[in-house]
Fold this protein.
Amino acid sequence: MKKFLFTATALILAVTASAQEKVYPETPEMSPAMTEFWLPQPKVVTPGDFATNTAPSDAIVLFDGKDLSAWQSSDGGEAGWDVHDGVFTVKAGTGSIQTKDVFGSFQLHLEWRSPAKVHSEGQERGNSGVFLQGLYEVQILDCYNNETYSNGQTGSIYKQATPLANVMRKPGEWNTYDIIYSAPVFNEDGTYRVAPTVTVIQNGVVIINHFTIRGTTEYIGHPRVIPHGDGPIALQDHGNPVSFRNIWLRKL
Ligand code: MG
């Protein structure tokens, strides 16, 4: 027994000794510069001025208060909405309008105002909407002291995502939307490989946080996934005289 213990101990010592003798490469010492890169440099963009409602220098201005030259009717003709006093207003019954240009991923800024005089309630009060790539609606609705189904409230991704807060200004006051949208990528079979995502900030408050859109925003029925490329920004004629101003977009 003693002999066995002696032999085992000797064997362990021998193995340990050979492991100590083996030399491995040393990991080079890191310097700060090894994890710093210089190219590409971010492009210089002059920010807009909130006081004067100017857009950032690289933005595409979609409405500057003068005319609807960047827009057309969603049916293809002239945009039939009224431009007045530096804003434009839904002309009920003339149909939705959309940008002539189409876009992929973007940052969109727009300002909207529901009528000062309240005529109705629920979904009939200051209803319009911003359709991303013409398909996915960010709801516009006057939800100031106005209850309706939560996934159809102001800033909802219509019937898909309930806003995280109700930050409505009073009827007749201007609201801002800043929308950050990433366009989808499709598989060959027409399903999403990468689904579209959206973040919505209303009046400086995040109300939709990087939500994964499930498909088209249907009034009746479930979302549908429809393969598409770049698409327009569309604004909804829901029969209510909602006004808009200061609309610009930056491609991402
Ligand atoms: Mg709507």
User: Anything to note?
Assistant: The pocket of magnesium ion is lined by residues 127-129, 139-140, 236, 238 (CB under 6 Å).
